[in-house]
Amino acid sequence: MSQPGTGRTKGTAPRTSLLDVIKVVLRLGPKQINDEIQLAIGQMKTKGVAAGIAVALMVVGVVFLTFLVVALIVAAVAAFALIFELWAAALIVAGIFLLIALIFALIGLLKFRKTLPLLPEDAIRGFRLDLGVAREGTRFDPQSLDQADSEKRRQKEESKRQAAEQAKKDAKTPGAGSPTPPTYSELLRRTGLRRDHLASLQDQITSSTRTIAESVKDRAENVKDKAESIGSKARGGSKPKPKADRGSSDRVGPKPKTLGAAGEPVRVPPAAEPKIEGVPAAAGQESGAHAAGEFVAARWKPLAVVAGSAAAGAVFLRELVKK
Which among 89, 105, 154, 156 is most buried, taking Cβ atoms within 10 Å? Predict the structure, then answer.
């Protein structure tokens, strides 16, 4: 039905094929998963902030514990004040603490420098020496490893310098560099919109599948009805032939008979009789038609299944390639 004054059809929308719907789902699915991961990361950041606040509160408790230690230090200063002046007692206690702190910090720094880099250097160097000896034998020069290490360090420093220069250029150029990550609210909005889109696509897939199934079912039922009608016609078309009157046959003329061993007449079958493949031989033409009808009636179910399968395959193929 068209609206007056316009050439558009009311209530008709462009129908999307099942293949296009599946393509859209495959395109939007990974994006949805990626945004869900970003959403999880944002939520974990929020929880991390809350955990940081809790840690800060615990640090405040530690600070008050430090105040307790300070109070004990003040008590120690007051004890020294009984012997020296108050300011002198405080300086003595502060000097003692400073000396202890410097000693421990210096020892820790020296030990940490000895452990740098935090790699098993001797084991790594020995492994590389073993590889060199296995590759070159006695011709291998251990100094080549040192030269290779110095070259790697130089290349690493050069790459760092280039990265720093590129970062400076990107900072000066607007729009350059890595894209700005979406905010938490943007992720929520984007995932919600895409979820609604995926829900509509799922509804289209379900409706298309249901339509195809109903079409296949209807065609299978039509084929089944046609097969049943053919079988019923075949069964109804073969009527038994009325028997001839014995007296009339005797009046027409004598009929040749063959006597058996006991002297009883034996019927001789016709010389040529039409045969139907898969149907037992009948006594006459009428009985042959009757047997053919029974043959079709007995095999209409497999024929209906084959026809329904072919119709379903044709419908599914047409819906799949339809644009």
Answer: 89
Q: Where does the pLDDT of residue 42 fall: very low under 50, low under 70, confident under 90, or very high at 90 and above? A: confident
Share of the chain above pLDDT 90, in %: 7
Query: Each residue of 279-298: b (16+ CB within 10 Å) or e?
Result: beebeeeebbbbbbbbbbbe
Classify burial at 227, counting beta carbons within 10 Å of its beta carbon; exposed 0-12, middle 13-18, buried 19 or more: buried
- Collapsing DSSP to helix, strand or coil, 259 comes out as strand
pTM score of the predicted model: 0.38
Q: How far apart are CA 21 and CA 241, in angstroms?
A: 63
> CA 50, 44, 38, 201 torsion: positive or negative?
negative
The reply to whether 102 falls in a domain is no
Q: Is 276 in a helix, a strand, or coil?
A: coil
Q: Using CA atoms, how far apart are residues 319 and 323, in angstroms rounded to an integer?
A: 8
Indicate the number of domains in the chain.
1
Q: Is the peptide bond before 14 cis (omega within 30 degrees of 0)?
A: no
User: Residue 130: what are its φ and ψ, rounded to 5°?
Assistant: -65, -40
Q: Is residue 138 part of a domain?
A: yes
Domain range enclosing 161: 125-171
The C-alpha atoms of residue 246 and residue 243 are separated, in whole angstroms, by 9
43 occurs within a structural domain: no
Q: Cα 285 to the chain's mean position, in Å? A: 65
248-297 confidence digits (pLDDT tens) = 444 444 444 444 444 444 454 444 444 444 444 444 455 555 666 666 66
